[in-house]
Amino acid sequence: MQTSNLTNESVSKLFNRYLVPSICGTLVTSIYVLADSIIIGKGIGTEALAALNIILPLFNIFFGNGLLFGVGGSVLMSIERGAGNHENGERYYSVALLLNAIMCVIYTALMLAFMTPMVTFLGATDVTMPYIKEYAPYVIMGMSCFSFSSFLQTFIRNDGAPKLAMVAVVTGGVLNIILDIIFVYPMQMGMKGAAIASVIGAISTIVILLTHFVSKKNGLHINLKGFSFKYVVNIIKNGFTSFFVEIASGVVMFIFNIQILKYIGDIGIGLYSVITNTVLMIGCLCNGINQAAQPIISVNYGAQLVERVSEVRRKGIKTAVWICSVIGLVALVMPDLLTYIFIHPTEEILALSKVAIRTYFIGVFVMGVNMFIISYFQSTLKPMYSIILCIARGCGLSVLFVYVLPLVLGDIGIWLAVPLAEITSLALGMFYLKKEKQQ
Questions:
Q1: Minimal CA–CA distance to 96: which of 75, 76, 77, 70?
Q2: Which of 55, 70, 310, 366 is deepest in the core (most CB within 10 A)?
Q3: Distance between CA atoms of 359 and 45, rounded to whole angstroms?
Q4: Which of 282, 374, 372, 292 is nearest to 327 (CA)?
Q5: Under 8 Å between Cβ of 136 and 108
């Protein structure tokens, strides 16, 4: 793949060309969870949806593993290409591929061996355990498919084929929805059917992505000549932020489930599932913006074209503000709409959901900017800034607030924890941007 167009072509044209495929690709990735949530909630019941929410942290591990090595390796590959060091770029791709495969084997073996104690720790109860045991084994066995799907998307997008990445993910997502409906409704396969549909969708995505390697545009080649351990360290250091974002989401979900069970009960878990699935979709939209900007930022950063990097950053932040503001306003004005999408709510759930959704979604207005700033620092080899912001936004502040606020404010303190974490993180992110500009 030639890098000259990323350093010479209009930034606006480049960003727009990458934006639509990237957003489509990341948005449809959320379909794997959203389709299961809607179909399980409507077709099986609220208890089954609560079971799915308890096991969702596993998806964070699957996709996080792929992003750890996918983003970590592809950013470094793009920077090396921008600097004209193409062989180094090939080495980063090769090492990342090997690391992803090794970790997939380790994770799958451990999760299958310790599945029951693992889901018990995550919050499984006598009510949800039967549903979890029906769903989890198939998803765990297909874990490598989810991980390699996110891994290959990232590298192929950085190799100049964002449309192929979009087609692959959209195809997998649509197939997942179709099979979800068939397996759960006419075939009555329950949770097992929903899990199998997700795995088949991920496999189809990988098959389409693999066609890139036989095309003339392919620039991804295995090259371990001159390998040293520094490649492993650099990939993990630079990709840790993406991995932490996913893992932190799972940790926060786990902590919130515990607090909701304590203060509200099982009905609150079902409502929290509605919120988390909607926020997952928003997060995927924001990740699409980040992934559209990342190859352009990294290549131009490697080529030391500072003004072009700044221009992409400005466009990314503006796009994130616009998208998140539209969705945030919809949630504030029509909170019941989100609830009805996922479940058949009772009057009790509707009364609870109005307050919960309106409070929680205050944080959505700044969520996209926070995610873009973290991705920007990652794309410009400032991993310490991105890691600090990640820890603050993704886990530290949310966990702190969800434990402290309910002691003072009661139930509403749970739903207020994330908005306060997002606003505080934004202040920290703006401070780091200002500090970078001064340097």
A1: 70
A2: 70
A3: 26
A4: 282
A5: no
Which residue type is seen at 171?
Answer: T
182 three-class SS: helix
Q: Distance (Å, rounded) from C-alpha 81 to C-alpha 64?
A: 25
H or E element in which residue 303 lies: none
Residue with tokens 């874990």: 143
Q: Which two tokens stand for residue 248?
A: 């932190």
Mean pLDDT of 274-281: 82
Task: Decide if 409 contacts 349 (C-beta within 8 A).
Answer: no
Alpha-carbon span 338 to 435, nearest angstrom: 39
Fill in the amino acid letter for 193. G
DSSP assignment of 383-404: HHHHHHHHHIIIIIHHHHHHHH
350 burial level (CB within 10 Å; 0-12, 13-18, 19+): middle
Tokens linked to 127: 């009510």
Of 303, 435, 238, 279, the residue nearest 361 (C-alpha): 279
Token pair for 394: 């993704």
What is the tens place of the pLDDT at every residue in 187-223?
Answer: 989 899 989 998 999 999 999 999 999 998 898 999 9
Query: Can you say how many angstroms the Cα of residue 153 is from the centroid of all Cα atoms in its chain?
Result: 13
Pair of tokens at residue 90: 């090939």
- Give domain limits for the chain: 7-432
DSSP character string of 89-119? HHHHHHHHHHHHHHHHHHHHHHHHHTHHHHH
Per the CB < 8 A criterion, the answer to whether 153 and 242 are in contact is: no
In this model, does residue 98 exceed pLDDT 70? Answer: yes
- pTM of the predicted protein model: 0.75
Length of the chain: 439
